[in-house]
Design brief:
- The protein is 13% helix and 36% strand.
- The strands form two sheets. A four-stranded antiparallel β-sheet has the order 1-2-7-6, with no helix packed on it.
- A hairpin with a 3-residue loop joins strand 1 and strand 2.
- The chain has 148 residues and is mainly beta.
Amino acid sequence: MRIIRYNQPNTRSIPALNRYAYSPWAGLENEIDRLFTAALSDFTGPASTQFPVDLYEDKDNAYVRAELPGIKRDDIHVELVDGYLNLNATRKTKDESGEQSYTLERSISVPETVQADKVAAAYENGVLTVTLPKREESKPRKVTVAIN
């Protein structure tokens, strides 16, 4: 899946509003503007409290994997509420000015095919893995059809 960021069109991208004829470089110019905006927004905006997760599945389970290095097991909270998997983690750091804590959170929509009462989580070597077992009726089945 590819995520595309939408930007407001500017006068350079609309040939009718531009005084000059369409330039073959207009697309490149807009792409460079978009790349600089995306790259520099990380430095200018507030720090994000979300963290990246990997989602994958096999025939029996769906998995959510998050890398949370330096966070203690007691500072991680996993909840399944109203079809959403909520992951919260608190990182505590000590420096010369005292102790600081950062809260990281992520909410992921969970399909109805998951057995909510059998969800399990494991945290090992800084990697949190949440296992979401599928219901029996949603698992793929192989049916052999006899040919007459």
